[in-house]
Amino acid sequence: MSCQDSGDLNRNSRDRPRVAILGVPGRESVQKELQRIRPAIEERAEIVVEDLEFQYDFSDTDIDLVIVLGGDGSILQSARQMGVNQIPVLGINCGRLGFLAALSPDDFLCVWADVCCGQFAVAEHVMLKTQLVRDGKVQAEQLALNEAAVLGGPPYEILDIDLYADGELATRYRCDGLILATPVGSTAHNLSAGGPILRRTLQAVVISPISPHTLTYRPVVDSADTRFELQVVKPNDSTSIVVDGRMLGQLRSDDLVRIERADTTFKMVSVAGNNDYRSLREKLGWGGSVSMPRTRT
């Protein structure tokens, strides 16, 4: 399946694309940069909504592009806010890292005219639907762009977590927690837990235990089409399923966590010069050389 399509913001043959602007509430840098770039946006597009509270309802709207100012947390919030109605996102970094929100405000001003002329690609990224099932009923449900993770919580006793893949027992993990990450999320919590980095357009999921009990527990990459189920044998009092950094619910011993590919995908606008390896080099410091201490003379 091709994951990249050439861009076309004027989906309904409009002269000017309709855009929504989202941003971190109360952040001075976002306010400042929005004031600076708004005239350029208005020159070539119709601003439908300017939402710096992450409150806009995307369930019934006609918008061609979402411009997000902030950091990677803002990108995750925008994906959560759009839910099943995902619209192409152009991220402008006003935060610290900006691994997903790759463009600086100056970069945006350089490419905005080209974007409005369709000179971009839309990369579609796997999202995961996570459900907390209790007594056979879905208690809570959330889409994940980065990951769904079982986290132990106090009193921090090691957990036994059964993992099922397509209905078959895969293994029982003994660990402090378990992460199921998308390729986009492979550079987040998964990477910190020792998991591999995946190309963001892969149709895959990576499973990484947190602080596993033995060396034999290694991260595993599986197809995004696999249906996973997790069950914590004896959860701690505050053991929880956490989706993109937000708690979906606390777990009881008979609860089931069901994780599978969502019907929708996260759509990220990619402009010339953006690529995964450049982001790894420039954002995460991947590669390079080890600095050596100077010898005193």
Automatic annotation (TrEMBL):
Principal subcellular localization: cytoplasm
A single GO BP: NADP+ biosynthetic process
Alphabetized UniProt keyword annotations: ATP-binding, Cytoplasm, Kinase, NAD, NADP, Nucleotide-binding, Transferase
Keyword set includes ATP-binding: yes
Listed cofactors: a divalent metal cation
Active site: 72 (proton acceptor)
Subcellular location: Cytoplasm
Binding-site residues, NAD(+): 72-73, 146-147, 174, 176, 184, 187-192
Annotated Gene3D superfamilies: Probable inorganic polyphosphate/atp-NAD kinase, domain 1 (3.40.50.10330), Probable inorganic polyphosphate/atp-NAD kinase, domain 2 (2.60.200.30)
InterPro entries: ATP-NAD_kinase_N (IPR017438), ATP-NAD_kinase_PpnK-typ_C (IPR017437), NAD/diacylglycerol_kinase_sf (IPR016064), NADK (IPR002504)
GO molecular function, one term: metal ion binding
Pfam families: NAD_kinase, NAD_kinase_C
Broadest EC class assigned to this enzyme: transferase
Annotated function: Involved in the regulation of the intracellular balance of NAD and NADP, and is a key enzyme in the biosynthesis of NADP. Catalyzes specifically the phosphorylation on 2'-hydroxyl of the adenosine moiety of NAD to yield NADP.
Family classification: Belongs to the NAD kinase family.
Full protein name: NAD kinase
Organism: Rubripirellula lacrimiformis
